[in-house]
Amino acid sequence: MYTGIDGSMITNASRSTDPSTNQPDVSISFNSKGSDMFCAFTRDRVTHPQGDPQNMLAIFIDKDLVQDANIISEICGGSGVITGGFTAASAQALAIQLNSGALPGTVSLASATEVGATLGASTVKLSLLAGAFGLAIVILFMLLYYRLPGVVASLALLLYGAIVLAIFKFFGITLTLAGLTGFILSVGMAVDANVLIFERVKEELRGGRTLGAAMEAGVHRAWPAIRDSNISTLITCFVLYFFGAPLIKGFAITLAIGVAVSMFSAVVTTQQFLQIVAGLRPARRLAFYGVQAPKAA
After folding, report:
1. Could you give the CA distance from residue 141 to residue 157 in angstroms, rounded to a whole number?
2. In this structure, what is the dihedral angle of CA atoms 200, 202, 208, 210, given to the nearest 10 degrees?
3. pLDDT at 297
4. Each residue of 46-61: pLDDT tens digit?
5. Per CATH, domain 7-100 is 1.10.645.10
């Protein structure tokens, strides 16, 4: 039977001592509402014999049973005593528990934020827009600085992005904000691989190699640096995935996929595009590669 009496009706609970037995007990007092309810409840329960479950009074705090007592007599007047086998420590603990249920508490609203169903989609769209804007700036830089090789790098980057997004779609990878960050970062790493190749190609052209030989040698010489940097990043991704928080795992997955595809894009796609360009007669002018033709002696 639910009494309807709760901690808000308790005005005080304290450890005391039974003068007749000199044993610790707990004194408890109620406000007027609690006093009337407790009086009516004990008056009804005391009609049942001791030991009968109908004579018991159970005290719960947060749905946990802290005391199960027999009712010896009706308790009216707003106060009563809980006795029975207490030690000083256990009586004090029960008094503290009873008082904890009577502590007044108020909740004040400091701020409120309404999260709509479209908030996540809007954030993802903004992130995709930021990624596209960043990619456009990178392509513009490659075109201005590396000229014809920059065109090759731009085509390779677009193909790289299409391949990575296709992999995300095929494996059902959800693009969270952390995942988008990993993807955008991998785009930068793909550009870095192209920069290494193009700088090597320019060095070979300045050294007097033909365009085709310079491109082949440039890719070959840039490969160890590309391989080592990407493998180091992949190791970091594996560590983040296996030991990181769930939010970090999405970042690690997309970054690892992007890095793996960027290695393929830099070494295979870029190299093939460069070889195609080298076979075009109008594209053999060294000025298109940012290198001045050697002056005739």
Report:
1. 13
2. 90
3. 45
4. 777 777 777 677 776 6
5. no
Rounded to 10°, the helix 177-206/148-170 angle is 150
Global confidence as pTM:
0.53
Superfamily designation of domain 119-289: Multidrug efflux transporter AcrB transmembrane domain (1.20.1640.10)
